[in-house]
Amino acid sequence: MEEKQHVAVFGASGHTGRFVVAELRERGYVPLLLGRDPAKLRAEPGSQARRASADDPASLDRALDGAAAVINCAGPFAATAAPVIEAALRAGIPYLDVAAELEANVDTFAHFAERARAADTLVVPAMAFYGGLGDLLVTTAMGDWTAADEAHIAYGLSSWHPTAGTLASGVVSDRRRGGRRVRFTGGRLEYHDDARPTLEWPFPAPLGPQNVLGEFTMADAVTVPSHLAIPEVCTYMTVKAAADLSAPNAQAPAAVDERGRSAQTFVVDVLVRSGGVERRIAATGQDIYAITAPLVVEAVDRVLTGRTSATGVASAGAAFDAPDFLRALSAHLSLDFLDAPLDTHSGHRRGGGGDAARSGDDESAHLPPFAAGLLLRPDARPTARPGTRPGAALPGGHVPRHRPGHAGLR
């Protein structure tokens, strides 16, 4: 019998870490539970708890002994990412994290790309709901395009009850930015103080149109342009979720099912635009913290089974076959496609057939060209909001060209 591989989880006692540990066990791996306080690490039969601290390199080296890979779930990642990556490089094993902190991800690309490549190992930052899922969706939507003018990623969260780790990471990021906001425009990150725009985003049914905050810049502004030629990457967040996050007494997630997931639901609606043509794909699921576990564990499995040739620092979309990766998450995500890209000037479809992917002998024949080969679950048929033509983007029938400081998307 083949011996099960050990995967270290740094921050295994945290909210997301516990989801990751459970997913590793379900996938047949032996999790090594790493953290500062072994008493908080609930080691079940067949797993081990090991003390490790980001400020103690020797403890990290001991904790990674025998591990095939390490997943970092402990924020703030501004403090933990570099030390754990250093330990992974010393051990000669791949590193993945679930960092949503934009600046921490910038640091990982800047400081470790050459060293990881020279070590012939792989570092995958932001392999999570923020940064990873959006990157996979944008990469899938791009299809055969080698470049695009804009990518828009709208987060339709029913609510956002943040974990203690999310709040702590937010404080660190805000401090690093000096209270300023950040956007990715003109092919680079810019810090600014102007007001954040509010607009309405036409999410697909059943969520429908929602008020969102524009320039709610997330880790996708690092991961997407790290490998795709897209000079404008814009992200949006539903107003209600943003208010939950910033509430003075924000409530932590509360479990509502046997897996520990909260009642929170999400839609990640992605639109890429090149010239007058748009491509759009949306993913729907439950609990942004819980979905991070199958995302990062699927990534670990692909790395350890040789289903990536990437080395150095690479985002999800660069390291993996994005459509195939999304297909592997069909038990956790529902995907919606438009039937074909739209010419936003004429409103006419460019190729394609019916209004949605349909069941039949050759299901892939009814998918848009950019999604060829990505079969959907039977219950994940593409839909369009009633009264809205398939392919409708922002009000007015097109995605406006983004301009720094632009607040006219109402």
Order of helices and strands: EHEEHEHEHEHEHEEEEHEHEEHEHHEE
Instruction: Indicate the CATH topology of the largest domain.
Output: Dihydrodipicolinate Reductase, domain 2
Q: Segments where pLDDT lies below 50 for 5+ residues?
A: 339-410
Q: How much helicity do the residues have?
A: 25-40%
Number of helices: 11
Question: Could you tell me the mean pLDDT?
Answer: 84
**Main sheet makeup:** 8 strands, mixed
**Could you say how many structural domains there are in total?**
2
Report the principal-axis shape: globular
Percent strand equals: 15-25%
C-alpha termini separation: 61 Å
* CATH class assignment of the largest domain: Alpha Beta
SS-based class: alpha/beta
Measured on Cα atoms, how large is the radius of gyration? 21 Å
- SS elements, strand count: 17
